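Supplementary notes (optional reading)

For those who missed the lab, this is the record we used. Protein: Ribosomal protein mS38 C-terminal domain-containing protein. Length: 214 residues.
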Amino acid sequence: MLNNLRFVIRSFANITIAANKHVHLPIRTICSLNQTPLGSPVLPISINLPTLSTKRIIIDKPCPCLPIRIPRPTISFPLVDPLVNNDNEIQAARLIVIRRNKMKKHKLKKLRKRMKYVWAKVRQKRELRKEKAFQAELMSQVKEAEQFKAVDYVQDKLNIINMTILPNTWRGKRLPEFVIKDLINKAQAKRQAKLEAKERRKKLMASYSYPKSM
């Protein structure tokens, strides 16, 4: 658009310069059967171009904008508790419940359709973890079976059978395990000493046997 305007201005300037020098530019005449040829234009040619400036009206004192005041209503309404004497009953309450249940089913169906492959992937990973744990447990059982020795197993069972079970209390008192074990050993040693003394007394009495009366 700007290039076209420049071209028009330059052509008008060339026409004005040619008119000042009294040079007649060649004009192409258009003739027809029923039309006479056009004559030469009258020189000089003056062209008035429109300007880009526009007139603006400036108002020195603009009219003030007054706010519109709306009067408040003077009627006062009493405040009433909506829970007391409420006549607005819920209509079609059962239909609302049925509609809510239908929407829940619809949303659940859409969720299952949208998350079908995501949940399948999660399920596959869960099954893979379970399979790995099961295989690890089987391998641990195989290693334990390879390390099994029958002699050690029988010896452990015999030690359990021959093991003396210590009581939790001693003469009605709850004492630590090592104290109870020490007291039991002392009691056994004392009992053994009594038995040995009794045997010695019997032997001594047998050596001093009296003769039978005639």
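If you only remember one thing from this example: The radius of gyration is 63 Å.
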